[in-house]
Design brief:
This protein is an alpha+beta fold and 151 residues long. The protein contains two helices and nine strands, in the order E-E-E-H-E-E-E-E-H-E-E. Strands 1, 2, 3, 4, 5, 6, 7, 8 and 9 form a nine-stranded antiparallel β-sheet that branches. The longest helix has 22 residues.
Length: 151
């Protein structure tokens, strides 16, 4: 697994975000949320400019959002998607290079590093930003930013 272990402080911008939200264990809720989000993406793209893919998640209780950033507030949002203007903020960024199947292990490792370094996490959404397109990028070159909300 190729994961940066030195966090970099970054600012996530305010984002127009449309998503499918599921609750429960991430190993079950995340694939369900993405399956539904991907099925709705063509209808979303008919009237909106999709600028990226990202998930937001919180633990205790487990809430997982699979979705897309948009260039502007959505027009004619397809049924099944929700919209939020996500406020962004300051984050500690870790970068995983490689297949999405490495994400569960990478995320556990990121939280271990945060705990060991006593990073002060604020009660906000964690982010997984999928920086390139899995349809056109070889699996070993996929880049996922794992961002933890810090003060």
């Amino acid at each position: 697994m190729k994961l940066t272990e030195e966090p970099e402080t970054t600012t996530w911008p305010e984002t127009h975000y449309v998503f499918v939200e599921k609750t429960g264990p991430f190993m079950k809720s995340a694939p369900q949320a993405w399956e539904m989000a991907h099925s709705l993406a063509p209808a979303l793209a008919e009237r909106n400019q999709i600028t990226g893919s990202l998930s937001l998640y919180q633990m205790g209780p487990n809430r997982y959002r699979a979705g897309f950033s948009l260039a502007a507030e959505p027009v004619e949002l397809p049924a099944g998607l929700e919209y939020e203007r996500f406020g962004g903020g300051t984050y500690s960024r870790f970068v995983l290079t490689g297949p999405y199947s490495d994400l569960p292990h990478a995320t556990r490792r990121v939280f271990e590093i945060a705990s060991r370094r006593d990073l002060m996490l604020r009660g906000d959404w964690c982010i997984e930003n999928y920086a390139n397109d899995p349809r056109t990028t070889p699996e070993e070159r996929l880049i996922t930013e794992i961002l933890l909300p810090t003060d």
